[in-house]
Amino acid sequence: MSDPANITLVTMDGTTFTVPSAYLHRSKLVQDWLRSEGDKQAMEVKHVTPFVLQGVLNFCEIHAEDTSEPLADPADPTKPFEADPRDDAFRGMPDDQLLQFTMAADILQIPELVRLTAQEMASRIDGKSPDQIRAMFNPDDLAEEDVDSDNEMGEVGEEGAISK
Amino acid sequence: MPRLPPEILGHIFRLLKEAQGSKLDFLAASLVCTLWHMEAQPLFDPVSFQVNDLLLKNYIGHSRLIRRVRLYSLLAESLRYGLNYCDHLKSIAIDVTRVNDGLRACAAAIHQIMRLHPPSLQLINITYHWIPYVPAAVIELLDIIFPPGEVVSTTSLTICSNKKMGHGVTIQLLERLGPTLCNFSLSGSQFDATLLEALGRCRGLQQLSVCMGLHPGSGVRRAPPDSVAILAAALPNLTTLLFSARNFGKKVCVSNDQLREIVTRLPGLKRLMADADRTVNDECLRFVVRHAKKMEDLELIGCESLRGEGVWTENDVGCRGLRRLRLSGAFGISSSFIRLLQQECPGLSVELW
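^ inputs. structure came back:
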């Protein structure tokens, strides 16, 4: 039986992080796990590297005592995004790291972090061409059906070609 | 690098849509790849990017010009992917007095669109203002939009000038676009031999309008007096011929023989407007009305030699589809002729002035 005050997370390579459960009160995945499988020793967080999980836990620690209402929808237009200086680390990180943190936020279901990273990605798209956005976020590994539909169009476009 | 899940992309697109001034960012992101495009579609408002005219003008601020360049580049990219964002594009409007890097970039973006032949974009509209004008500047931009040797699909060209300028540009454009041109409208330029020859090479022309001609500058060759008939002979597909221009200060008028030749050479002519000289008489008008069987709209200016002579019969009216007849100076025209026409051509409107 694990300590209910703390939770241990295990990353893809077996690295463990033990943090106060309260840090992760905004993570729907963790809360669901605690309710259903909280008697287990540790929660596996597959697909997340230690570096990224450390960053996510830092975010959770910084915001652990925030009293704002949990964000139901990360892109809720009725709740304007306000930059928080405590999150500056996310704004300065390279594109590939930002992408990994976005994915981790999505996996752990932390709407506030999803919003922060999605907002940062949106702001980095500002003024960019599709080519530049492709270079930033590398979405060029097309699924097979995409390639097929490109061929049907008789035109294989540049990376990430759009089928109509 | 991992691939973004659809729900995250959905968040990003919603944030882009909500952000002020991010319309173009939204469009750019929607063109990144198939997955991104699919996620953008539910939020996409095609009206936001519905562009009817590609504008090349330098009366706007630099930041607006930059946004315009970006929009045109994105539209070109959408066209490359077979998307229908350019379906409303109808024309290129050019109104410049000088060239700068912003306009060159704008012209290059328009070229990116033009080389992909958007289906509805058929008209080029060029306007000259009173501001000092540099032909070389416009020609430089046109060279960017229509690089020499590249196939052009434009079918309509309108050039409007307030002053005696733009002649060189007109000639260049006719040389460049001539093979595909179907409609050409020229207002306010001089009419000389060079222009006549350039027009004569636009063999596919179906509609030609030349009006408000001005005095040519020095050093140009006069067009011959039978210019309109020469055009009719050179352009057999004309269905509309509107001609009211000046050649060295004199109106380019059609004579009796020339008017007959025009009607004979252009059996498909539906609309004719021309200045007539004093040789155009009742017999000539009878010939036109009898032989121009497709004519729907006929306007002759300066018909001072119509005297109401001769007797008209039903057999004289070949143009049963005539809907509008305007004759200026025809004060002596026979009232029986008018009655006969109105009887044989239902719905005909006649204006004598």
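The first helix of chain A runs from residue 28 to 37. The first strand of chain A starts at residue 6 and ends at 10.
thumbs up if we can close this ticket
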